[in-house]
Structure formats: structure tokens, C-alpha cells
């Protein structure tokens, strides 16, 4: 067995790798992080996507919910998260839309009533009271060793709630509790973000996605990081370096052995290091490939299919916010939360069926986020004073199976056009007329397909969760005899642990994969 050169080698300098590095270095371990890109941060970065404009966008990941306050406090992170007043706005098929305003319950009720859905307002409150109870029970466990299913069910303490959200397809709970198709769709979207599935699928993939969207920090709120996602990464990088971790960028890992030998290429030179423990802050699929390159068996048996993402991401910089068809709602309110477009329950199901058949949905479901309304600091003072705004669009049901290396450019153009058509269908003016231009005279629009995400971030199939989401608990008969098993970070090889989004309780900008891998290392062999 090779003599370790470091106590811990971490493959991948995304936010989870930085969390693990900071915890382990603070505990006195020698830590080396190897990141293939010129900077750390992975998907949680800010970028000058439009040169010369003075806008710095959260290019990939864009909101924070699952990052526990506990991790922020324990690592001493200087991070400010801003709560959005508005939950969401969803245009209806007429000129009226649904505005959910955290700051004005009467206005929210009136908005439901204008849709003819006044009864659903009461149902909405009761439903999210239930998810809040679920969140208060489950979220405090995510930084602890995994509970079993039976233990988690007892902790929730409500068998009816457990059955409806954990054991039965999500669509059953939604259609049983809400009558209005638009309201049903707004609730349903949290089960579909980044997950290509039907709301009635017995796999319960939508339920797992929904659960992680509603439990964050015990409230389910999705907050805007002041300064952009790069501010989160910057705080984590300072914590890791300050504790003594070594962060090497431009270090592209080529292979890994079960004995912890890591081979990587940096500055044109092939180098080798050995970790007493190796933490893989890459997708399990990528880890499997690295192990195969090192002559090892697969990380899991039998091998799972390659993950698949199902979204397109579009970043925009506009001269101002667009006008709405719904004159009752100001653009500042509509774009102040999550702006749902063509996401009624029926539209979501129709889009899924079309995508399943290999087509781009005729009416593409999309969600918009305007970070500059909550955080003007991502714009230069001149840009903010001129009324400019960023928009991030996340479109659903655009599965990676439709893309190839040969057609990626043409599909990117088609998907971008589909996104713009979807936006224009709810606006009072064409959005293209509001595009700013960059220093080179190009319109400020940037579109990323699943294949683009695979190329840029090493996300297999463009899957933003690194693979299928798991429940935040073990099945009653699953092994938990080792620290790695108890913390949900085990692989077939004792010296190699998963520390990224592909860990149990992974996904999103949470730091949980990194925290839990670090805790498993500190607990012992």
C-alpha cells in the first residue's frame, strides 16, 4: 500500500470539496484539493458572462436554500443571504396571474380569487404548513448520521403526511388537495426542477426532488446570496485556505486507485499523490471512470446508467424589466420571486410527454429569477442606476437524450428560441427588444444545454444533482456499520468516499456532501 503524501486528497474544488477541506484542515489534517478549472467553485461561481457590461452573474447555480446555518457558523463563513418578499408569480391563460406575496396575505388571497381559486388559497396555506412541519423534523438530521426510514417516519410523527409526500406519487397529493390547474402546477414544479419525470411516476423521483426543495433550513425558503454565488465560494475558499488546506487549480485528475493513488495533469506534467483517504467531489459516474482508468472495479455494482439532466439554462441582461400582460401586477413584484411560465399542471404533463417522445415541448415550461432586484451589487453602479436587470431562466423537460456532439449547437439555438417564445407568451412586449449588448456588440443572452454543462462542469448528462436524488434516510435493511455508511458517503473502496452532490443527501448548493464526508473521516476508519 502506498504511503500517503496527504491525510486527505479531495478530487474537485466545487463548494462541497471546499466545505470538506475546511472542516478537515481545521481538525489538523493535511488536505490537498485538486481542481481541473483555473478557479475553485464548480457550479457555484460568478462570472462576467457579458464582457464590458458591468454585470457579474451567478452563471450556473443561482439560489441557496439547503446550505445549513450550522455549516456557515462552524466554518465562520462571511455569507449574506437575502430573503425574497415574493414567493412566486404565475401568469394565467387570461390576463390575470397568481401572485404569492409573503408580505401581504390579503393580496395573495385576492390573487387566488381572481383566478377563481379562492378555496385553493386556504389549501395552499395548509399544504405548506404541512411541508414546514416536515422540514422542521427532517432538516436538522441532514448534518447527522443517517436515520433509518422507520426512525425518520417516527420523527415526522404524522403517518398521513408521511404517506402523501414520501410513499405515494407527488401528483396524488397535489391533485387531492388543490382544484385549480394553475395552482397545482406551481406546487408541482418543485418536484421537477432538474428531474425528468412524471408527477405520477411510481419511482417517486418527483417526491425526492420536492422534498429537498421544501426542507431547506427548516423553512424551504430559497435565498439570494449577496454578491452572487461567487461570494459563497469565495467565503469557503478563504475558510479552507485559512485552515491550512492546499488548493491546486488547473489539476486535471486522470485516474484513481482503491489504494488512494491519484494521478493528475497540471501545467503539462503528469503527477501522482496518495491520500490516506480520497474524497471524490465528482459525480459517481465520473468516479467510476477514474477508478476504471486506475484499473479498479466500478464504484457501485451493478453499474447504474449514465445520469441524465433535463434542463436548459439561459442568462440574460436587459435594459429594464419587461412589461406584463397582467396590468394588476408590477414587473418588480412579478420578477421579485420565482416567475413561473407555462407551468400549469396540464402543461407540465404535456411537456413531459412530448419530451419523452423526443420532441422539444411545443410550450416550454420555464422559471425566471431576477437576482438584481434583490441584490443590485451584482451590477455596476452605472448599470443599476440605468434600470438594467439580470434574468436567469431555467427551462424544464429538455432531456439530454436529444443532444449529441454533432447537434449541440443547433439544439442550443432551437432551445433558446423555445425559451424566448415561452417568455414572450406572457409578456406585453417581445423580450428581444430589451437585450443589452456587450462590448463586442453581441446581444446579452447566454444559453447552456445539458451537454454544455457536461463539458463545463463535468456533470454527466448535464445532471445538476450528479445523479438520481436519494432519500435523506437509509432503508431499514441498509448497512450502516461504518462511518462512511452512516454518513451516506461510502463507496466499495474504504479509502474512497463520495463528498459531492452524489452523496446521500446531496444535490443543490448545500455543502452537505462535503460536511458529511468530513465527519465520516473524522469519526474514524
UniProtKB/TrEMBL annotation:
Signal peptide: none
InterPro entries: FAD/NAD-bd_sf (IPR036188)
A GO-annotated cellular component: cytosol
Gene3D superfamilies noted in UniProt: FAD/NAD(P)-binding domain
Pfam family, one: NAD_binding_8
Protein known as: NAD(P)/FAD-dependent oxidoreductase
Taxonomic lineage: Bacteria, Bacillati, Actinomycetota, Actinomycetes, Micrococcales
